[in-house]
Amino acid sequence: MVDIIDPDAFLRHLFDVAVKRADPMRTVPDALGPKPEGRVVVLGAGKASARMAEAVESAWGPCEGFVITRYGYARPCQGIEIVEAAHPVPDQAGVDATKRLLEIAEGLGPDDTCVMLISGGGSALLCAPAEGLTLDDKQALAADMLASGMPIGDINGIRKELSAVKGGRLAAAVYPAKLRCLMISDVPGDAPGDIASGPTVGHTGNADLAVATLAKWGVMPNPAIRDFLAKGGAPLAPDDPRLEGVENIIVAAPSHSLQAAAVVAKEAGVEVRILGDDIEGEARDLAASHAEMAIGLARGGLERPVLLLSGGECTVTRRGNGIGGPNAEYTLAAAVALKGHPNIHVIACDTDGVDGAAEVAGAVAGPATLALAEAMGISAEAQLNENNAHGFFERIGAQVVPGPTLTNVNDFRAVLVLP
Known about the structure:
Elements: H1 7-21, H2 24-32, E1 40-45, H3 49-60, E2 64-70, E3 80-85, H4 92-106, E4 113-119, H5 122-125, H6 135-148, H7 152-161, H8 169-174, E5 178-184, H9 207-216, H10 223-230, E6 247-252, H11 254-267, E7 271-282, H12 283-300, E8 306-315, H13 326-338, E9 344-350, E10 362-365, H14 369-375, H15 380-385, H16 389-396, E11 399-400, E12 411-417
Helix pairs in contact: 1-11, 2-3, 7-9, 12-13, 13-16
């Protein structure tokens, strides 16, 4: 039988392995190849984009370029300028930076090559409201969509309708220069058009679909957005000639990180079951399902530990006024469902180091979690009902706070069932 002395530390190590596998310094250089002849300009946006730019210069030396990343995620580059802006709700710094990025893109010619660096978070960081809309319009809508529990794919589809840069419009601005886009995926399914709302991929949706999606999730846009969508939105079709020849290459994805963690777990003698790298849904519902699965495994009798791994992107429908994020809420809901089971430990973290809007990746929970909270006078169920998962785990000292990880391949969830 395998003896895992500290299950929580073991799970935290697996999370670190998953993050390391997605480090752009490991994944970007291999995808670059030799530097093209002539003028090369590096552009990009996302939580991992500054680290990606650093990786480009580690392979090619100083480069001309401009990249937008989240506050606190900048990296030292030799020639590429790094600008920071807000995420997940855009701010004026993001608007100003996107304007500059578009001006650079539009100044490229047919003899130039653009290397685009795109990662999760780019949807908020690339902020260029379509004509007739304002930053205030987009900020309000973004906040409402994030609080509604709407899946990220639906959110990004609506963003494309309201943007002058998403849904292939950034690639159109780069035209007629050659465009090669390196992407780090943080979306279920790894579709290039969903990563950062597809700035280099044409949009397959339409304004009517955006209106129906908003209604489905109970999100009421303001009059400016309603009027804009009524006029047809701002789509750019996938077959637009300006998108011909664009290369979109995924250099890191959730599946890669889950596999890396699985290898380490197997080397420790643990049986690994990967449930999927593209799982979506309400965080607390998914947690209850995984907890039931783990309890069933424990009840059946195990000869060695079993690890349930999953990725994807959970959502949270805001019911209370607490501070939380989908990974912390998943962990808290799992702890409530497990009721202090003596053989089951859980971790859920966002690989970018930020769960929701908090500077916390997620949390760990185990057999002692509920008892520790109860001894401190804290009701786990009450905190879950208040969407206060971050507050709960902060008080009991079970948060995972790695700081900026400089990458982003979505959520990492692991449930360890011991014999």
